[in-house]
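Methods: example folding runs. The two proteins below were folded one after another, and each record is reproduced exactly as written to the output file, sequence line first and structure-token line second.
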Amino acid sequence: MQNILEVKNLNVSLDGEKVIENLSFNLKAGENLVILGPNGAGKTALLKTLIGANKFSGEIRWKQGMRIGYVPQKFPFEKTMPLTVEEFLGFKKLSGEKLFQAIDSVGIKNNAVLKKKLGEVSSGQLQRILIAWALVDNPDVLIFDEPTASIDIEGEETIYKLLAQIEKERNLTIIMVTHDLSVVYKIADSVLCLNRKFFCHGAPQNVLNSENFRRLYGEEIKFYKHEHHK
């Protein structure tokens, strides 16, 4: 299967500090990649670099014509900002029936949400709205930075079900940062272990072992893990 992404000798510095050093990996079409590593490992910096938001040295080569959607870990805005969901999605030139289709595609069935201000919707609804925003352009690749970081456990379940549904319906490639191992085993075809430098890359069953965890996190760790029900 053809590579859709090739990264070679990637180096990224932010505010004069090197956050990614000599990283190389490839990604094939339809392959879901989960990026693991401790806080400050450069995971978010990597995602932002892949979408062109950070300067870098080395090579990042996407297959020509790849459309990429990005869902950030945090969406910075003032809770009091008088911007409705409808107005927010309107920046994507959505109106009328297309607006309803966009929110329906991410499991929001109540159209009244469109009239709510962004600061009034729940964290789970906001995450779905951001996913809808990313899906509008029919991307080939969806990049998620800890998609459930600010959502409770029940909300996590529905978001991960939604991601599985989107992947199945749209035949997407997903790149995701998460700390939840149960999600890794359910979603990932490959795992990239990163702590500023490359530690491991491969199928979860091959690289997720206690030795790699010790090397990656510097100590014996216990991952948060819960079952995601179908």
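Second run, written to the same file directly after the first:
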Amino acid sequence: MPKYFEKKVDNFIEKLLNFDKTIFKRKIFNPWAEFDESDISQDAPKIRTSNLKKYLLNQQNAKYILIAESPSTGARYTGLAMTSEKVIHTNNLGYEYSSKKSICGKYVYELTAKKVWDEILVRKENFAMWNAFAFNISEKQGRWFENPTEEELRQNLDILNSFLSLYNEAKIITVGKTAQNALQILNFKNFESIRHPSNDFKKEFPEQFKKYIN
């Protein structure tokens, strides 16, 4: 592993850990720096940070970047975009669990994570996954899927650019209309868009995924 790349990853993670969320006007949860009563212990943020570093290093040669809009329940407990504890457990991905439920073998599930990983795991290419807005937004107890505002997206832009800089040569693909809109708001132009799997009523997601993945 080249030292320069690991240093870039460390710098990116430091930005996440030290991000000043008080600039936002509503409740934002930073899974790499915070914990609550639903976590396995006070070490949960360290577990998620360790997961993230391992994941980013593993994707060093990523050919594709998948960008969703904002993290939901999966990333809340794994620290990895579009990745749930259930996906980690079912596919033996080698990452750790941080939810209190995992103690009893009741791993946190997320539909989007399952469908995205179902496509990734049948391909040999490396995929780096992230969100246009990095942190969990919670307006109601137990909800982790509120949409970021334009202002919040812009306040988070440095984090997104730092992530993308890790994989300069990778092709960017947004997952879902809201992610597409988010990148357009931020003036990104060179990316493709596919349907969000949780809204894939016509079962177009696998075909669209295949279309843009060489």
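Comment on the second run: Residues 3-212 form a domain with the Uracil-DNA Glycosylase, subunit E fold (CATH 3.40.470.10).
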